[in-house]
Amino acid sequence: MAEFIRFFTGTLVGQYITVFVVSMVPLIELRGAIPFAYGFVNTTDTGFNLLLGYILIAVGNMIPVPLIYFFARKILEWGKDRPVIGKFFRFCLEKGEKGGKKLQEKAGRGLFVALLLFVGIPLPGTGAWTGTLAASILDMDFKKTVGAVICGIALAAIIVSVVCALGFGAWLGITA
């Protein structure tokens, strides 16, 4: 398996697929995909284009947003009383509700900016997945949610890129 991964990420197409898929993984998202992209630029001679990598990362990070907004809450509500998955689903619902209420209390009418900052500041437990779930639980308008998440992703990309450009990319990828 390790040989396959080494072979796969040694090809240009494999590298683009890797950053795209990593950007869709919950908790890792863009914050983990950008260090991969910098690693491909700095350690391989495949011709990895960082701009194309960024585009793929942003698109990959945004793909789950509509699904989370429209379906995650319903699925979590459905599964919260099920025997095997109920405890985890209740945990996700409680975390989303708690985060959403805290966000709303602090933000007041500035919920858009608060959501943007929540998604954009790369800390553990924040990001497009959690922010979108919180917005869904708060019944925030879908268009405003998408706008705030897009702006937050852009902010996170800038912050993580600066950190990577300063040479902390490997450390960030490990701790993301």
Beta-strand percentage range: under 5%
| Structural class assignment | mainly alpha
Number of helices: 9
Total count of strands: 0
- Model regions low in confidence, pLDDT < 50 over at least 5 residues: 172-176
Write down the domain tally: 2
> What coarse outline follows from CA principal-axis ratios?
globular
Radius of gyration from the CA trace? 17 Å
Distance between the termini: 24 Å
N-to-C SSE series?
HHHHHHHHH
Describe the structure using short key phrases:
78% helix, disordered C terminus, mainly alpha, 2 domains
Structural account:
There is one protein chain. By secondary structure, the chain is mainly α. The chain has two domains: 2-62 and 158-175, no CATH class; 64-154, no CATH class. Helix content is 78%, strand content 0%. It has helices at 2-8, 12-22, 29-43, 50-62, 64-79, 86-107, 111-120, 128-137, 142-175. The longest helix has 34 residues, at 142-175. It starts with a helix and ends with a helix. The model is unreliable at 172-176 (pLDDT under 50).
Brief summary of the model shown:
This protein has about 180 residues and is mainly α. Helices cover about 80% and strands about 0% of the residues.
Draw up the topology in text.
Elements: H1 2-8, H2 12-22, H3 29-43, H4 50-62, H5 64-79, H6 86-107, H7 111-120, H8 128-137, H9 142-175
